[in-house]
Amino acid sequence: MAFFTLNKASLTHNYRYLQKLFSKNDMSWAPVLKMLCGNEKYIEFILSLGDEQVCDARLSNLKTIKKLKPGIETIYIKPPAKRSIKNIIKYADVSFNTEYTTIKWLSEEAKKQNKIHRVIIMIELGDLREGIMGDHLMDFYKKIFQLPNIKVAGIGTNLNCLSGVMPSKDKLIQLCLYEQLIEAKFDQKIDGVSGGSSVMVPLLLKGIVPQGINHFRVGETLFFGSDLFTNETIPGMKDDIFTLHSEVIEITEKPSVPYGNLEKNPSGDMFEVDETKFTDIQKRAILDIGLLDISKVDFLKPLDSSLNFVGASSDMLVIDITNAKKDYKVGDIITFRTDYMGALRVMNSEYIEKRFI
Q1: Local structure of residue 115 (DSSP, 8 states)
Q2: Same structural domain for residues 96 and 202?
Q3: Where does residue 215 rank: exposed (0-12), middle (13-18), buried (19+ CB within 10 A)?
Q4: Do residues 295 and 330 share a domain?
Q5: In-domain check, residue 124
Q6: What is the dihedral of CA 83, 89, 93, 99, to 10 degrees?
Q7: What does this protein need as cofactor (predicted)?
Q8: Which tens digits make up the pLDDT trace of 3-25?
Q9: Choice among 34, 78, 171, 238 that is catalytic
Q10: Rounded CA separation 189/206 (Å)
Q11: Would you call 115 a catalytic residue per the annotation?
């Protein structure tokens, strides 16, 4: 049976690293917990590490967070859907927003629940996901400030989330200027300028984040220690928090290429046969995980670097162990590191047990 582990010591180390980094720069931050997919024991452990705000993009996860730690401040990090408004007010203290109509619905529901709901207005800076275009900002804010039971908690942006546009000092200065313009025109204090996600951490380490940026949302770098500019581990952070363990269920020597009439496989891929390898024999191991659990093998990296991927079907993963350093047997465990998207997929699989180490 496959299982996924979270290393408590390494996660604690990364959490403390980020706490110290943001505290030193007089900035606040919020862990983004969406990749934990609502797993209660993992969430409970994260919540035990500090009292920072926490972010998620799924209401069911925010409900779990509020159940585990009612006093924690929660942020819903995507524009709310109309049918979610009631639960947004119930479980999220803050939400990201880009539409006046949506904020009006939030205002009406907040009044019903006798709450003040805070909103962060997302501004478009080039990545072309959610965000208001800059030339619409003043008219937008004029209407928002008039709504009851709504407080503008800040402005924010997202970069490197859809189109791959990276943050820069110029873009962050632009965000700060928008905040200053809004404050000056409407005589309203905007407390938070949320500069972005994990992709911002390398800029902070280099000291090139403008002083006006005072809030970050961090998920990938917390869980993987990632520098998203270099795709390497940030010095001083850990990259071994999550590990996938899968059992060998078959080992057989087989031809290295398929034989027979070929058509597309269930994933829609067409295998191209190298006729020069018809006589080659390959020692293959089949593991008890598949695309249903991992989405694609590119998200995985075996700790044993002598192993090579052959392919995967919905429920099984085939590994070439011909040149393996170890003499693998049926029942052995093969261990993988995952990247962010791989861990997200595994966490979302009900078929893989989640454990601590």
Answers
A1: -
A2: yes
A3: buried
A4: yes
A5: yes
A6: 50
A7: pyridoxal 5'-phosphate
A8: 999 999 999 999 999 999 999 99
A9: 34
A10: 29
A11: no
